[in-house]
Amino acid sequence: SLTAQTKAISRISMSYITKKLLRPFQGSALVLALILFPQLGESSTETELFLPYRAEYAVDYSGFSAKRVITLETVGDEYVLNAITTLKGIARLSGYGPVYEVSRFSIVGGVVRPSRYTISEKKPNPKRDIQIEFNWETGMSSGFAKGEAQSFPISLGIQDPLSFELMARLNLIKGIKDFSMEVNEGHRVREYRFIEKENHTLYPGDYAVSTSRFFIDRNSSRELYYWFADENLYLPIQVQQVHGQKIKGTINLEKSSLLQ
After folding, report:
1. What is the C-alpha separation between 183 and 163, in angstroms, rounded?
2. Going by C-beta distance under 8 Å and a sequence separation of 6 or more, which residues neighbour residue 153?
3. Cα–Cα distance measured from residue 24 to residue 116, given in angstroms and rounded to the nearest whole number
4. pLDDT (tens digit, 9 = 90+) per residue, 121-130?
5. Torsion 224-80-85-96 (CA) sign
6. Is the entire prediction scored with pTM above 0.70?
7. Cα 250 vs. chain centroid, distance in angstroms?
C-alpha cells in the first residue's frame, strides 16, 4: 500500500547534517571544537567529522520519491543529528510525513554515545513513532516503539538508528574496516556487521567521488548497502536496500557542504 511504501522510506537509515563552517574560519573552528569537546582526541580528521554540516539526498522507494536532509550541529555540550524526510510528487497525497528523526549524542572514550533518539511526524502516531532514552547511569534504555513501552540493557558502543552511521564513519576514519555494533531500533536490539565489498566511483552532482562499498549484515532478508566517500570524511554517497535480489530503495546524495 502507499502508506506501507512511504513508511518503508524512513526505514532506510541514513544517517547523516547545517552549513559547514566557511573555509576562512575552518581552522579556528577546529581549535574551538577541540577546546569545547576535548574527548574527540588528537586527530583533526576525527574532530572535523563532528563539525556542523549538511547533506541533501534523493530517495526512491518502489517508484515513490522523497527528499532527505541531514544536518549535524552542536547544542550545549551535545551533538544533535537531524534527518527530515519529505515525500514528493503524488506520494504527498498520502498525508504521511514529513518524518523527523533526531539523535542527541556525545563522544565518550572515542565512541559515539547516544542519549536520546526520536522519529515522528507532526501529529503523534503511536504505531510509527519511536522514542529511546539512553540512561547510562542505570545501563538501561527506556521508551516506546510499535505502540508499546520498550526497555533494553545498554553498554558503551550501542547506537541508535541514526547515530550508527556516524559511528561507522568514525571507525573508517580510524582505518577500521571490519567492525560491528549493536543498534537499538526501539523495539529490538540488532547487531550491524560491516563487510567491505568492491570500491566504486560515483558521481553526485558535478563531482567524481571514490567510494568504499559496505554490506551491513543485520540478519535481515532486506539487505542494506552503503557507499562511503573515501576522501570526504566517509560521507554516505549512496544507500540501497535489496530484497529478493531486487533493489527496493535507493538514496543518492545530491549535494553537501562536505563536497564544496
Report:
1. 9
2. 139, 140, 141
3. 34
4. 988 888 889 9
5. positive
6. yes
7. 15
